[in-house]
Amino acid sequence: MTGLHAKLHDIYDEVAQRNPGEVEFHQAVYEVLDSLGPVVARHPEYTDNAVIRRLCEPERQIIFRVPWLDDAGAVQINRGFRVEFNSALGPFKGGLRFHPSVYLGIVKFLGFEQIFKNSLTGLPIGGGKGGSDFDPKGRSDNEIMRFCQSFMTELYRHIGEHTDVPAGDIGVGSREIGYLFGQYKRITNRWEAGVVTGKGLTWGGSQVRTEATGYGTVFFVDEILRTTSDSFDGKRVVVSGSGNVAIYAIEKVHALGGVVVACSDSGGYIVDEKGVDLDLLKEIKVVRRGRISDYAAARGGAADFVAGRSVWHVPCDIALPCATQNEVSGTDANALIDSGCRIVAEGANMPCTPEAVKYFGAAGVIFAPGKAVNAGGVATSALEMQQNASRDSWTFEDTEARLAEIMRRIHHTCLTTADAYGQPGNYAAGANIAGFIRVADAMLALGLI
Ligand code: NDP
Predict the structure, then answer these.
(1) Whole-prediction pTM value?
(2) Quick check: is 274 catalytic?
(3) Which residues are involved in binding NAD(+) (predicted)?
(4) Do residues 302 and 330 touch, judged by C-beta distance below 8 A?
(5) Which one is the CATH code of 211-364: 3.30.1360.200, 3.40.50.720, 3.40.50.2300, 3.40.50.300?
(6) How, if at all, do strands 318-320 and 304-307 pair?
(7) 205-260 tens-digit pLDDT
(8) 390 is annotated as contributing to ligand binding
(9) 60-188 and 211-364, same CATH topology
(10) Separation of 345 CA from ligand 1 center, angstroms?
(11) Which residues line ligand 1 (CB under 6 A)?
């Protein structure tokens, strides 16, 4: 690899060599190290004390067998993961992903990102992530429950409100969090609300947690627009995915006067020029757990479904990738640039490939990275933990106002930090540097950990 500061080059090589085959993890590490050149030049204490090398090595990695019975009575075996990456700032905090693509490299990339994201929120939370290669698609409710119970039967001994606090991610929503929390309660005989977040509103959950990542993404973009005295009003927006993050991003864009004309799932995308009908989308994706192609069918001639192509070929002013990692290729980036897109903000984790990010920079497209843009989800999880600790519950309006304020603060931190390190307007540099400095200073203060 070239381009890294000399002191960081060796660290990257060591990470690549010690973690063979974990390409997403390598990519996430490189992306952060790429921003830290000016920091290590100004602060030799971070490299002298091996803070960055320690940050790249998780505190603890747990891999376990998850055996469960399917509806036909056959034994199924999946692999479970929890990577407890860094707890300098607070208990490990980060979601669980259930998707067939999950392996250690994905969990480590997500856990590594989570350290800096959680640091950026300014809240007392460390970074971790977990999940399984279990595929929930097409599984019955009972199968999902049996899987979650088996998963928690191992995980429970590693987590706790002061230790490690999981939440949802791809394939893990409130249904799965319910089954996981139920099994934790049953095994430990403790109604310990603070052990997971994303809980239902009647059993310890927080208002706005469901909406938080999507809303927070749009609040962040609203702040970007305000810096140029602009607004969402009349903006044409394309969103990828149609899961939790995408749905609530669409809802908030519409509330702020923009029009989302396209969204997708792994089967393809729909274009609805009048604006995505959110009630219909929720009915299909949340209630019926259906496919995005069903949306076009239900809208008759008003919407088109395009199978197997990238949604980034639909022209827009603002693009919000809200599906999965590396979903925006260099070719997709060029399609967005050619169609006049001005802002790309990552609702998902690392959805833009390094090539795409490079092209956006060269074309003057504003690029805002996931660890800043989608931090509203984990920030609201931390608000859920606060409410659990004080046995309190706040109103929707109060919680949403706190989320909006946190997103404004993160946006401000990114811009002022980028300025302070000689890269004005570079949101990625600002997010990486600010996220790094807070956790690195805590690690120095806590001695050799
Ligand atoms: P969901 O499972 O609710 O939705 C994921 C969506 O992305 C689905 O529409 C899914 O389609 C689509 N998708 C997944 N893989 C692909 C693919 N290879 N190509 C195209 N579409 C795909 O997950 P979330 O909305 O919770 O998470 C989305 C992203 O946001 C992830 O990167 C996650 O890490 C990140 N994130 C989530 C947070 C949260 O609070 N939930 C917090 C911060 C970040 P299909 O159903 O066909 O698979």
Answers:
(1) 0.97
(2) no
(3) 213, 244
(4) no
(5) 3.40.50.720
(6) unpaired
(7) 999 999 999 999 999 999 999 999 999 999 999 999 999 999 999 999 999 999 99
(8) no
(9) yes
(10) 15
(11) 168-171, 213, 241-246, 264-267, 322-324, 327, 347-349, 374, 377
